[in-house]
């Protein structure tokens, strides 16, 4: 068993070996990318270990001071083991990696596998190794820790929302479905919802409907906004059709019309067109015929006036009757 208060027993390093300038700069760079907060920073913050500006350490003396603050902190022994393991992970790639010093330390202090797995995941996140991080952090043995923060990092940096990282783009979805973070943070919730809407209007709609009632209207409005303004060309047309075909209930239908006709969505491209298409698709033909707010350019000699005229002739005297809805 290692005596963790003995620096030399924990950091079994060659003489004068510490964090290289390259490693130090890489960690600082990654911290900036991750909104100036690594998951190591979150760990020491939660544990209230006063590391000051010692991480990443520049010199062997900085590392010794960081070690001293960790082992002298009034926290559980296993938490000290976790923080020391993380630091040893930093140094592993540059020291006889065939006998990985972090793994050797973990075995020597009998670090439970679930803690080991969790720390491997956090360390990989801090190194922007998102695929590896997700594999560790979705392990079934783990209790969710920092779940929304982890999801947010994946959303912003692992290929989500058009960052172009290819295969990493689906990691946020995989993490969400496995861990089921509660999404209490409005910012993270809306970022994840925008990510879902970018992938599928229909799936985003059912996600919104499953959320607590006080969130649903806001999410539906976000879905409408993103569908009408975040795409162009054929993709916009496809998403528009998907939006029009959503199985909205009466209350959701009212939210859509209020948002697009009277609310903040009224200036969105195709706002009134979307309402008109919904009315026709759902059989609200009298409202469609009487809507004087849509005209539009002609396409192949057809615009909304032509369409409304055709519907009106088809309805005949029924135009004056109460609205009927096709089921």
UniProtKB/TrEMBL annotation:
InterPro entries in the cross-refs: ELYS/MEL-28_NucAsmblyFactor, ELYS_dom
Domain ELYS-like: 37-263
Main location: nucleus
A GO CC term assigned to this protein in UniProt: nucleus
Subcellular location: Nucleus
Domain of life from the UniProt record: Eukaryota
Name used for this protein in its record: ELYS-like domain-containing protein
